[in-house]
Amino acid sequence: MKQTLIIAGFPGVGKSYFCNRANGLLILDSDSSKFSQLPDFPQNYVRHIEENIGKADAILVSTHQVVRDALRERGIHYVLVYPDRSQKEAYLERYRNRGSSDDFISMLEREWDTFIDSIEQEMFPIKIKLKDSEYLSDALLAVMDIE
What we know:
- This protein is α/β, with parallel strands linked by helices.
- The chain has a single domain (5-146), classed as P-loop containing nucleotide triphosphate hydrolases (Rossmann fold).
- 45% of the residues lie in helices and 15% in strands.
- The chain is built from six helices and five strands; from the N terminus they run βαβαβαβααβα.
- The chain starts with a strand and ends with a helix.
- The model has no long low-confidence stretch (mean pLDDT 91).
């Protein structure tokens, strides 16, 4: 069974970009929006993650607090990749450029500090904070060195 790296990536860090360009690696981009509308969320989402451990090289997952809590409760180790707090405006621009909804952008603009605070208080995962103009793919070497 192959070892699978679980990467919880903040919106806009480049999960989809990384997944689409991971030559030779099996990377699953597990979009939580496909699961979160169902009544058994996040259990259904975490079950999907567990079912793919050992099958994929990496699984890209959401940073929702309930997902992170469920991963921790099940002892599933993960790397948490998120932006530096100072990158708020750059990320809001990323969301606009990729065509995110106004509601999504407004919510992240309003809750930015709350989300970053929550992530920075985490003790369970390995954390990688992205600096100006960095993406998940830039941090890949650091992520792979950790595992």
